[in-house]
Design a protein that fits this description.
Length: about 240
């Protein structure tokens, strides 16, 4: 992790202060001064500020049931930030793993562990995200065929990865995708001539939403570990 992040994870120091300390040459890694806050350090490096040896706090992994009309940003931007619902210290150290649109509800994961979020977000990891999609028009067999093969999103050359479609009712499907392009689900349905009228994420990998709207909880160690296990598993479709 970056040196400035390591300092924040080990102390009450906030990011801008950490950067100043590093640039002033007050921070040592294994006895040597590093003046670049982007220097990569690991937990087995000995990072010190003066005589103080820094030990990072354990990473945090949180699930929230995102309400409608909230924004996946660390600050309010026209809509209340989802972090208003998560009552933890130093919420500003957390980032959202795979944002949802303002009008999308459901499972949001937040963490301060960048390597863990990489396993969810990076398309090559093929971590499955399951959405319940409410549609304007009944889903057609042709649309299902196309979604399962991969569709061309407007302005994108490559096709989407094959998705999995499970019919819930005429105008409701469960869509499983392994990517997270901008407005992906809405654009995929538009590409097959339909429209999304409501969207809810209910699962990421093996982590399933089990909370009421607006509630949050820490993930269990098993849920945390399941992400790297499921993302390494080859997708069956
Ligand atoms: N796809 C979308 O179109 N919107 C979301 O919020 C998530 C996935």
């Amino acid at each position: 992790m970056r040196l400035d992040k390591f300092i924040c994870k080990s102390t009450d120091i906030i990011r801008p202060e950490a950067i100043i300390l590093v640039r002033e040459g007050q921070v040592r890694v294994d006895g040597k001064v590093f003046k670049n806050e982007a220097t990569q350090v690991h937990e087995n490096n000995c990072v010190t500020i003066g005589a103080r040896v820094l030990t990072p706090r354990p990473s945090r992994y949180i699930m929230l049931h995102k309400p409608l009309n909230t924004i996946c940003s660390n600050v309010d931007e026209g809509y209340p930030s989802i972090f208003r619902y998560i009552e933890v210290d130093r919420a500003f150290d957390l980032h959202v793993v795979g944002r949802l649109d303002v009008d999308t509800t459901g499972l949001v994961l937040a963490t301060d562990d960048g390597r863990w979020s990489y396993d969810i977000i990076h398309p090559k990891k093929q971590c499955e995200k399951v959405y319940r999609v409410g549609l304007r028009d009944p889903i057609s067999a042709e649309a299902i065929f196309k979604l399962e093969k991969g569709v061309q999103l407007q302005g994108v050359e490559s096709l989407t990865r094959p998705a999995k479609v499970e019919i819930v009712s005429e105008k409701n499907v469960l869509l499983t995708i392994t990517e997270g392009r901008f407005h992906q689900v809405k654009r995929m349905l538009r590409a097959v001539g339909n429209r999304v009228v409501n969207l809810h994420r209910q699962q990421i990998g093996d982590v399933a939403l089990d909370l009421e709207i607006g509630q949050w909880r820490h993930l269990t160690p098993e849920e945390v570990a399941s992400i790297s296990n499921t993302s390494r598993r080859t997708s069956p479709y």
